[in-house]
Amino acid sequence: GCGNSALSHDLHELGYTDVTSIDFSPACIAAMRARYARCPGLRWAVMDIRALAFPDASFDVVLEKGTLDVLMVEETDPWDVSPQAAAAMRRVLAEVSRVLRPGGCFISITFAQPHFRKPHYAQEAFGWSLRHAACGDGDAGAFHYFLYVMRKGQPLDPRDVALG
After folding, report:
1. How many whole angstroms separate alpha carbon 25 and alpha carbon 67?
2. Cys-Cys crosslink for 23: which of 1, 54, 114, 115, Cβ 3.0 to 4.6 Å?
3. Where is the Methyltransferase type domain (predicted)?
């Protein structure tokens, strides 16, 4: 869900003029439509990430920033995720894979460390490769965030296959 983040508008200002943003909240989407009505390349839709209403192979890039974290918010042990949360994550990732074009890219930005998140992403059924990088300012006391990049149509590294 895009929430009330300015990311879509920031992307538009950088020259990405065909941006579709979704959120589960009708109030949020209405507010974002009103706020950015002057940007015709920005589209807004009320949608559930578990059942995307887009045709197969609709997007070159799917970007999520913290949305998948919501699926894990009630988990008490990140080492032992409930079957319900794991199934919800699989359902969402299968939808992302479905709407990506061949060669398309899924970018996930999260605070979830690789040992917690990579097993969810590293599923051969999604048909994508997996890379990640830690980001942050290097301050030992600062929180780092992680960037995961999945490329549709490229194979998983055998070490990642073993995680999934």
Report:
1. 13
2. 1
3. 1-107
At 135 the three-state DSSP class reads strand
Does residue 150 sit in the same domain as residue 89?
yes
Residues 71 and 14 in one domain: no
The Cα–Cα gap between 80 and 101 comes to 32
pLDDT at 153 over 90: yes
**How many structural domains compose the chain?**
2
pLDDT: which is higher, 141 or 26 = 26
The rounded distance, in Å, linking the Cα atoms of 94 and 62 is 12
Sequence letter at residue 156: L
Backbone angles phi, psi at 90, to 5 degrees: -60, -45
Do residues 123 and 72 lie in contact, with contact meaning Cβ atoms separated by under 8 Å?
no
Burial class (CB in 10 A: 0-12, 13-18, 19+), 15: exposed
Kindly report the pTM of this predicted structure: 0.92
- Output the average pLDDT for the chain: 93
CATH of the domain at 107: 3.40.50.150
Question: Residue 75 is part of which domain span?
Answer: 50-162
